[in-house]
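Final report, closing paragraph on structural work. Over the funding period we assembled a curated collection of sequence-structure pairs, and we close with a single example.
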Amino acid sequence: MRPHDQYEPPTDTDVAVVGNGPIGAALSVLLAQRGLRVTVLERRPRPYTLPRATSFDGETARLLAATGIGDRIGGITEPATGYQWHTAAGRTLLDIAFSPRGRYGWPDANTMHQPALEELLAARAASLPGITVLRGHRVVGIAERDERVTLTVETDDGADRTVVARWVVGCDGANSFVREHLDVPMTDLGFSYEWLLCDVELREPREFTPTNVQICDPARPTTLVGSGPGHRRWEFMRLPGESSAELNREETAWRLLKPFGVTPETARLLRSTTYIFRATWADAWRSGRVLLAGDAAHLMPPFAGQGMCSGIRDAANLAWKLDLTLRGLADASVLDTYAEERGQHVKESILSSVQLGRVICVTDPAAAAERDATVLAGRRGRTGPGAPDAARPLSAGLLRTPGGGEGSPAGAVVPQARVSAGGGTGLFDEVVGRGFVLLTTDDPRPALGEDRWSFLAALDTHVVRLSPPGPAGTAGPTADTGDDGDTGDTRTGLTDVIDTDGRYLAYLAEHDATALLVRPDYHVFGAASGPEDTAALVDELRDRLAAAVPAGGTRRTA
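Its predicted structure, as stored:
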């Protein structure tokens, strides 16, 4: 029995999530999977059936798989083949090729129809007894007192009710009531343009190579992207002197789509509407027991495709920290690292997106010609497309050495490859499991001792000893589960795993490490070299979490 199951706290729910978009839905599932009681308050009476985001990267696919929908993601997505920028004349300014099996075990880029993703998350939430989703419930008041938060809610039928929670997370979008109530100031970079968005459903299958293209034409900057099986999106920038009303007409959408072979005969226009992107972030992500996530905390231009991805990262970062806090395994101050980590990470993503936008959103022909000449000159001598960058690492927060230190992998997202254990082979997350992972090349138990081992067990840590593949790539040691003999739960002992693809042993060698401690959000807490350093690594995690009770002790409430 998990510690937080041993009593019934005087609240309606452990965590109230305001907003049931993809970020709120993912967060609620991640919390409920850990045994927490979650109440989701969504103002819309029914699911929103139009897409907003159109894709997510391989790191985000891995995080979404952690919600329990991994085996169904492939049914609602199509891997993107690449991303190119073209001049008005069709010359290539940027060329990135995407792999169908990227650094994190998933396609580098996954196009999707967002309502389909939300349906998967809703079905997963419905399968978990700890989640209550209340639609048609608008939060209109928030009051914190005595380590509880009381939400005042108006329902669609005109009734009022209250929900009392230990923690509240505002995932209620760009016009967040939670953020407004907290009176959180926003930093706005003042970079915004208006675009016409056209979502279409193709009547016949059609191949687009590469999947995603940015046409840097000063006469009309244009974006073409995949948005899941049978769906595409075109976006057209509003030009200087052009009125929003003129652009935001269905006949304008069809006129702009026609050069791309998209007509009423070849496609159905699901939506055409103008929108203005912004580059802004909240200056505070936490106020007492209320936190912000997703669009409630940040908005960014679409050019790097990181808006929804950043929100999913928020959810993954916050879920395990709330869990440890509620279980009494970490002090509530650990939640300050959520804002520290995600705030800096998002700022960097927004600044990068703005930089890309400044290159793309050029309507002056002379400036565009100068841009093209500069970029093309920089591409001389290059052969073939480039690869996408690794996921942006954390630069501060709950890491062994803040900023990672020179040569340290601390803060990086650990790669994912195939491993073998118990007679099966698959991606690491599926074979070993999710949560904290201590990855080693030897048996750490003698150096760790009983106290540290108990601490890792309290965190539900998977302790994994790696070995290279045998001569045929399949032989290797078997799981050592200690006294309980349970090969189905790798968290009860040391598990021997074969590094089938050789990726993990190479990663350790690259960082001169014999051990790696990985957080539940797949960011590396820190690396160690040798048994004594591995023990120190575990000690530092315990110190950083400021554990409220010793392993096996009585849980305090949070």
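Confidence is low (pLDDT under 50) at residues 1-9, 472-492, 547-557. The longest strand covers residues 160-170. We thank the funder for supporting this effort.
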